[in-house]
C-alpha cells in the first residue's frame, strides 16, 4: 500500500441508531425577484422550520430560522441564521450518513478539505456523537493537501488533527495523509496509488457510471475566489479528466505546491456537502446559485455529484442570493 500511515488509536463505539423519517414540511412560495431558477425564472420552493429536533438522534435537525430550497442540478440549499446552527445540522447530516453507510457496507469513506470546514465539524466531537458514532468504520481522506510537513501550520492534515481527528477515536491505518517526504508530483502519484489499492480491497466504492472512486461523503469548502479543493479559476487543472489525483506547483494561493483530487473524482461522490460561511464568500455562492448565466463557471459551480449535493450556508454567505 502507498504510505498512508496510522497516526492514532482507539476503541470502537456503538453504532448510531437509525433515524425515523419526519413528516414533510409545508412548502411556501418565494418571490422570484429574490430567488428564481436561472433559466426559467420560476420561483423555487422554500421551507421553514423553527426549533431544533433530534438532539439525541431522534430525527434530522431543523435549525432555527433555516430556509431550505431545492433545484435540479444545483442540489439542496440550506441557509442558517448562524454558523453555530449550521454546525449542529452538519454534524447530524454527517452522522446520519456515517450510520447509513456503516450499516450497508461496514465502512464509511469521508473526504475532508481545509479552511473553515474543520471548525464547522466541531459538533461531532461533542455529545451525543462523540460517544455514539461508530468511529471504527471511518476512513478519512483529503480532497487536497499542501505539500508541507504534517506539523506545518499550512498542513490541512494538521488542521484536521488539531480541530477534529485528535478528538475522536478513529482506528489506526484509516487516516490517509499524503507522504510529505515526496515532492508534489510524487505525492500526488503516491496518493492515487493508495486510493487504487483501497478500491481493489473494496474499502472505496467505484462509480458504475465513470469508473472513478466513489466516496460516501465529500465535505468541501469554498474559497473567496470560488475555488474548491486546489482547483482554481482559470487553471488548466480544472479541465483534468483522466487522473484521480494531480498536483499544482503554481497555486495562486500560498503555499504554491499542492496535490488535489480532480473533478471526475469529486463529482463521482455519493454525497457532497458544500459548507460556506461568511460574507466574503457570498460572491462565489451567488455565481453558482444565482440567476446570472456564466459561460465560464467558477470551480464551485462545477461541483455536480452523481448523488446528493447539499449546500450548508450561513446567512452571510447567502446574502447575495
From TrEMBL:
Transmembrane segments: none annotated. InterPro entries: 6-phosphogluconolactonase_DevB, 6PGL, Glc/Gal-6P_isomerase, NagB/RpiA_transferase-like. Pathway: Carbohydrate degradation; pentose phosphate pathway. It is an enzyme of class 3 (hydrolase). SUPFAM superfamilies: NagB/RpiA/CoA transferase-like (SSF100950). It catalyses: 6-phospho-D-glucono-1,5-lactone + H2O = 6-phospho-D-gluconate + H(+). Its EC number is 3.1.1.31. Gene3D superfamilies: 3.40.50.1360. Residues 82-311 form the Glucosamine/galactosamine-6-phosphate isomerase domain. Belongs to the glucosamine/galactosamine-6-phosphate isomerase family. 6-phosphogluconolactonase subfamily. This is Probable 6-phosphogluconolactonase. It comes from Hibiscus sabdariffa.
Amino acid at each position: 500500500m502507498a504510505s498512508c500511515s496510522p497516526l492514532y488509536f482507539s476503541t470502537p463505539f456503538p453504532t448510531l441508531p437509525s433515524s425515523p423519517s419526519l413528516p414533510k414540511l409545508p412548502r411556501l412560495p418565494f418571490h422570484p425577484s429574490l430567488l428564481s431558477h436561472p433559466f426559467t425564472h420560476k420561483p423555487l420552493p422554500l421551507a421553514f422550520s423553527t426549533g431544533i429536533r433530534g438532539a439525541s438522534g431522534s430525527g434530522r435537525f431543523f435549525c432555527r430560522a433555516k430556509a431550505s430550497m431545492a433545484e435540479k442540478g444545483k442540489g439542496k440549499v440550506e441557509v442558517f441564521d448562524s454558523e453555530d446552527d449550521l454546525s449542529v445540522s452538519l454534524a447530524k447530516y454527517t452522522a446520519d450518513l456515517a450510520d447509513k453507510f456503516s450499516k450497508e457496507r461496514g465502512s464509511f469513506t469521508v473526504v475532508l478539505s481545509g479552511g473553515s470546514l474543520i471548525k464547522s465539524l466541531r459538533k461531532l466531537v461533542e455529545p451525543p456523537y462523540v460517544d455514539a458514532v461508530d468511529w471504527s468504520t471511518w476512513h478519512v481522506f483529503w480532497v487536497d493537501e499542501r505539500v508541507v510537513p504534517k506539523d506545518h501550520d499550512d498542513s490541512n492534515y494538521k488542521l484536521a488533527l488539531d480541530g477534529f481527528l485528535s478528538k475522536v477515536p478513529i482506528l489506526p491505518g484509516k487516516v490517509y495523509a499524503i507522504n510529505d517526504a515526496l515532492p508534489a508530483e510524487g505525492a500526488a502519484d503516491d496518493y492515487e496509488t493508495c486510493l487504487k489499492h483501497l478500491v481493489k480491497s473494496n474499502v472505496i466504492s467505484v462509480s458504475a457510471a465513470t469508473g472513478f472512486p466513489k466516496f460516501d461523503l465529500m465535505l468541501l469548502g469554498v474559497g473567496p475566489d470560488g475555488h474548491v479543493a486546489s482547483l482554481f479559476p482559470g487553471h488548466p487543472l480544472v479541465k483534468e479528466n483522466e487522473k484521480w489525483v494531480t498536483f499544482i506547483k503554481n497555486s495562486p494561493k500560498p503555499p504554491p505546491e499542492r496535490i488535489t483530487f480532480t473533478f471526475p473524482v469529486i463529482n463521482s461522490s455519493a454525497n457532497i456537502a458544500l459548507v460556506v460561511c461568511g460574507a466574503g464568500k457570498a460572491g462565489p455562492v451567488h455565481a453558482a446559485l444565482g440567476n446570472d448565466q456564466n459561460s465560464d463557471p467558477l470551480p464551485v459551480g462545477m461541483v455536480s455529484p452523481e448523488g446528493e449535493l447539499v449546500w450548508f450556508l450561513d446567512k452571510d454567505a447567502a446574502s447575495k442570493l
